[in-house]
From TrEMBL:
GO CC, alphabetical: plasma membrane
Parts of the chain that traverse the membrane: 38-60, 67-85, 97-117, 124-147, 153-174, 186-206, 212-232, 253-278, 284-307, 319-337, 343-362, 383-405, 425-444
Gene Ontology MF annotations: transmembrane transporter activity
Pfam family membership, one: MFS_1
Protein's membrane topology: Multi-pass membrane protein
Limits of the Major facilitator superfamily (MFS) profile domain: 1-449
Entries under NCBIfam families matching the protein: efflux_EmrB
This protein's record includes keyword Cell division: no
Signal peptide: none
Identification of the protein by name: DHA2 family efflux MFS transporter permease subunit
Entry-linked InterPro entries: EmrB-like, MFS, MFS_dom, MFS_trans_sf
Taxonomic source organism: Bifidobacterium avesanii
Keyword terms: Cell membrane, Membrane, Transmembrane, Transmembrane helix, Transport
Length: 459
């Protein structure tokens, strides 16, 4: 059962990673420009984020089998539409169908796996899930590049559709229903508030550093924040909320969400800045920047499963704090990079940061989830994933904006010197965010060892 769920997760995560290398080919074949084609990625992320808050409701309303098979079937349909789309709008429809599946299935799979395993083994379970999620983005672009060069971009979607059909067949045979999700009330107003609010907020944040109309962008961000705030208030007042945001009253869970949000914000900012630093400051190629990040992604994916097992044995403090410390050291090393650094040195610093972050991510996530009752796990995954999406967008916008300050601070410097200064400022900001995560963990994990660490805090 778990293997089938993980296959669905792998398919969803790979789908997010494999399309980017295909964008130049799609531009050429369908006759669209770069601004239009990027919607295959940004539009996908927006739709996915809009669906995530609804995942808890869907988990409570539909059985595990029906929801999983329905989502994967929708994914297969979207893949086929994309594979044979003669025009860009139809290709976009296929991507939207895929995103609807991913937004619902990612929280569901994690929630089911957490409920299948007892609390004493959830760290290991989360580590296995993290291994799948970590390897997919690391290997996806390389695999898709080979497929695109050999067979064309449409083959990517054909392969994804074929794999989806295999997953559906396996799910029909091996996947059982799992009772444990409490149904929430369907509220059309809440759906509208969360969907429009998140769309405005995330779109505004994603275009903040490249917009030609700053007033409109800021207005979208403000509208998004207000609508999300109204959504949260509505959920807190409802007798049967669609999404139980009130679980953030549990201090342990709230602290874990804050720590993870800091890590995701810093990571997304770093993933944007590292290629820019390697290419603009060091003068290396795009291929070199991709290869520089690969060791960190591979090692980090393995770190999660190790730290998950250690968490089950030793609890949060003895496992998460070393990872967070290493992560912060990696951030400081990144901030110390200059024009005299090499690609190898940059890769080593990034690997330290990423490995430490992934080593801490699994235990921190599991620590927060274990503080909640089982009936709230589905809602917790929706809340955590939604906050993560917002944090990632905010992190990217903040870090890139800080990098752009170099032109104001050194207006007479050369472009290369401004790039060096901008990278230093951005990496320093990343180190500060990572340090904030470490300090938060130091202040909030002061409990006794063992199971008590994971359950008493927040009661």
């Amino acid at each position: 059962m778990v293997i089938v769920l993980l296959m669905g997760t792998l398919l969803a995560v790979l789908n997010m990673a494999v399309v980017t290398p295909a964008l130049p080919s799609i531009m050429k074949d369908l006759g669209v420009d770069s601004t239009t084609v990027q919607w295959l990625s940004s539009g996908y992320s927006l739709v996915e984020a809009m669906v995530i808050p609804l995942a808890a409701f869907l988990m409570g309303r539909f059985s595990t089998r029906r929801l999983f098979i329905g989502c994967i079937s929708l994914f297969a349909a979207g893949s086929l539409v994309a594979a044979f789309a003669p025009t860009f709008p139809l290709l976009m429809v296929g991507r939207v169908l895929q995103a609807l599946c991913t937004g619902a299935i990612m929280p569901m799979v994690t929630a089911v796996i957490l409920l299948v395993f007892p609390k004493e083994s959830r760290g290991t379970a989360m580590g296995i899930t993290g291994l799948v999620v970590g390897f997919a983005p690391a290997l996806g672009p390389s695999i898709s590049g080979v497929i695109i060069d050999s067979f064309g971009w449409r083959t990517l979607f054909v392969i994804m559709a074929a794999v989806a059909l295999v997953v559906i067949a396996l799910a029909a045979v091996y996947l059982r229903n799992f009772d444990g999700f409490q149904p929430g009330a369907f509220d059309p107003v809440s759906v509208l508030l969360s969907s429009v609010g998140l769309a405005c907020l995330l779109y505004g944040l994603s275009t903040f550093t490249s917009t030609g109309n700053m007033a409109l962008t800021v207005a979208l961000i403000v509208i998004g924040v207000l609508l999300v705030a109204v959504f949260v208030r509505r959920q807190l007042k409802a007798k049967e909320p669609m999404l139980r945001v009130g679980i953030l009253d549990n201090r342990t869970y709230a602290h874990s969400v804050i720590i993870v949000a800091c890590m995701q914000a810093a990571l997304m900012g770093c993933n944007v800045m590292v290629p820019m630093f390697i290419q603009t400051v060091l003068g290396a190629s795009a291929t070199a920047s991709g290869l520089a990040m690969l060791p960190g992604a591979l090692i980090g994916a393995c770190c999660g499963i190790v730290s998950g097992r250690l968490f089950d044995k030793y609890g949060i403090r003895k496992v998460a704090l070393p990872g967070l410390t290493v992560m912060t050291i990696g951030g400081v090393l990144m901030a110390l990079l200059g024009a005299d650094a090499s690609v190898v040195v940059t890769a080593c610093a990034y690997t330290v940061l990423y490995a430490g972050l992934m080593f801490a991510m699994t235990p921190v996530n599991t620590w927060g989830i274990n503080a909640l009752d089982n009936e709230n796990i589905g809602h917790a995954q929706s809340v955590t994933n939604t906050v993560g999406q917002i944090a990632s967008s905010m992190g990217t916008a903040l870090i890139v904006s800080i990098s752009a300050l170099s032109t104001t601070l050194a207006p007479t410097a050369t472009e290369h010197a401004q790039s060096i200064l901008g990278s230093t400022l951005a990496f320093a900001a990343i180190a500060v965010i990572l340090a904030a995560a470490l300090i938060t963990a130091l202040l909030t994990t002061r409990t006794r060892r063992g199971a008590t660490e994971r359950t008493l805090a927040g009661r």
